[in-house]
User: What shape does this take?
Amino acid sequence: MLTRNRYLLCTVLVCLGAGSALAQASMAEFQQALREKAAFNEHDFAALQLNQPVVRLVPATDKREVAVTGLVNINASAEDFLRSYRDSMMRKNNSAILEIGSFGSEPALADLDGLTLDPEDIDDLKECVVGDCQIKLSAPMIERFQKEIDWTAPDYQTRVTNLFKEMMVAYVKDYRARGETALIEYSDKSDSISVATEQRALTSAAGYVNSFLDGTKSGLQLLQETLVWSKIKFGLKPVIAVNHISIYKRNSDAGPQVLVASKQIYANHYFNAFLALTAFVNVPGTTNASYLVYENRSRADGLEGPFGKLKRGVVEKKALEGLRGIIAQSKANLEGSVLTASTAEFSVSDSNGWGNRLFGGIRPLLWLLVLSALIALLVLGRRRTDSATAAKGKALKPESVKS
Assistant: This one.
């Protein structure tokens, strides 16, 4: 799994130009890499000089995919960034995060003690069959709910929740043991979706992956690897997701580089795949030449159909606006915290507060929230349209019969 994760990180870093920056000796080379790998231009670099964040859409070949990248200069150290991320990664520091936890090195049911299933999801599982289910699950998982749950029992809700947790623990155990080959196929619709295939598509998007760093020579040191589960609130349905988060560090002549990758291995609604990268990059030879580089890619339901182009335009616009706001706030919070850290009043409690503020903005799980909310609104609009169409059809039916 370590080798696979290094390959993943190196792949995405090459896409962003951040990986190239690790070996570059000047700002000019760094900017050239960004021009070639992430389509940033001179206007973007000028905005950076004015301490403004820049964001770009990343071309996607699949209609279900939304991808954006962003860049901002930062007046802070890699150690500050790393400490803040680690301190706040598991904190429930945003009202949108309903529940959150992590799996241990040996996943167990106790790891999911804080997880609950919504009554609506439980009721949906009662009607769930392979190819027609409101919850994203594999075919064997769906069949277990029909075979093992007595839906007439007074405590069926508790039994459903326990079975769901058992399956999640077994899935995570298998993933820890076998890596990507353990990823399931979603069978909630007539056409199954392979999570592994979707993830590979995100990490090898055409036009961005032009070369790869050799994982054995990259110098990346794995500092932390965590499987995080979360239940995230938004307009239509909460999303229960499991993300594989890896934190790496590499020392260079310019200073340490910190890389964080978040790869989704499960989501019960909307998302087929999700990948987020945050890189703290130092560029030598220039003052204030530290940068946060972001790339977020997701494949989701709800972006296809006759109005797919219109819906995509709305989502992409909001995604760019959202990412710009997120990284601007990240810069402000992190730099403000650095100033606080230089004073005599700095304390452990201040550090925790800093982490909470910072990662209320840039933690990968909240990017999931941003896109989830947008897609939920689109799906809700589609349902209203379908309902209106059905109602109109019923109203016209008597006339047809009469005629």
In short: The chain has a mean pLDDT of 74. The first strand starts at residue 54 and ends at 57. The chain has twelve helices and ten strands.
